[in-house]
Amino acid sequence: MMIPIEELKFDEHGLIPAVVQDAHTRQVLTLAYMNDESLKKTLETRETWFWSRSRGSLWHKGETSGNTQQLLRVDLDCDRDALRFTVRQHGAGFCHLERRACWPSEFALDDLERTVVARATSLPLADPDSRTGKLLGDPALLAAKLREEAAELAEAETRGAAVHETADLLYMALVALVRGGGSLTDVRAELARRHAGVTRRPMTAKPPADAP
């Protein structure tokens, strides 16, 4: 990965601001600073390195926390005095408070997915009272709850009921997705593939499983 470093406009302290953006959610994770050395190490290793103004030293993001960032793309702004890094964030997130980003953001399904994945990776040591843990550890219970929530959504007749039952079903579906080894990224890719398709399957109901 190459960029014209010689064209960059570092400030009087030899630093340049770097906006870090999540490739998956497009969320801005932080604004950090780089000097010539940290920028070169970032480009060479494909992991982010920054300059800590408070410590006066280089720091490799995730070196101690494990929340590393894989560099996918770097863009220069029109004035060549700021950078934008598109990364694949690993671990809890960028912020030292174990949040996805240094700014608060609206709740997203990705937040729930990370919680479910965390529960899945901690099994069988998960909290025995954890609802998610019970569903992940009991496929029969999960299947029953999926059928139950889908039926309740199908019968919802008010806006409030539809919202409530959709939330329940999305949660159950996400647990099933994680348990099956999939991710929301996979689902988005599949939906994008279908959206771009030319042909459409007829919208007909399948016969019941116990039908003759």
Key terms:
four-stranded mixed beta sheet, two-stranded antiparallel ribbon, single chain, alpha+beta, 212 residues
Q: Structural class of the secondary structure composition?
A: alpha+beta
- Would you list the SSEs in sequence order as H and E? EEHEEEEHHHHH
As a whole number of angstroms, the C-alpha radius of gyration is 23 Å
Largest sheet: 4 strands, mixed
The number of helical elements comes to: 6
Describe the structure.
The protein is α+β, with helices and mostly antiparallel strands. It has helices at 36-45, 109-122, 131-137, 139-154, 159-179, 184-195; strands at 16-22, 28-34, 49-52, 57-60, 69-76, 83-89. The strands form two sheets. It has a four-stranded mixed β-sheet with strand order 2-1-6-5, covered by helices on one side. Strands 3-4 form a two-stranded antiparallel sheet. Strand 5 and strand 6 (83-89) form a beta hairpin. The longest helix is centred in the C-terminal third of the chain and has 21 residues, at 159-179.
How are the SSEs placed, and which strands pair?
Layout: E1 16-22, E2 28-34, H1 36-45, E3 49-52, E4 57-60, E5 69-76, E6 83-89, H2 109-122, H3 131-137, H4 139-154, H5 159-179, H6 184-195
Parallel strand pairs: 1-6
Antiparallel strand pairs: 1-2, 3-4, 5-6
Helix pairs in contact: 2-5, 4-5
Put the structure in a nutshell.
The protein is an alpha+beta fold and 212 residues long.
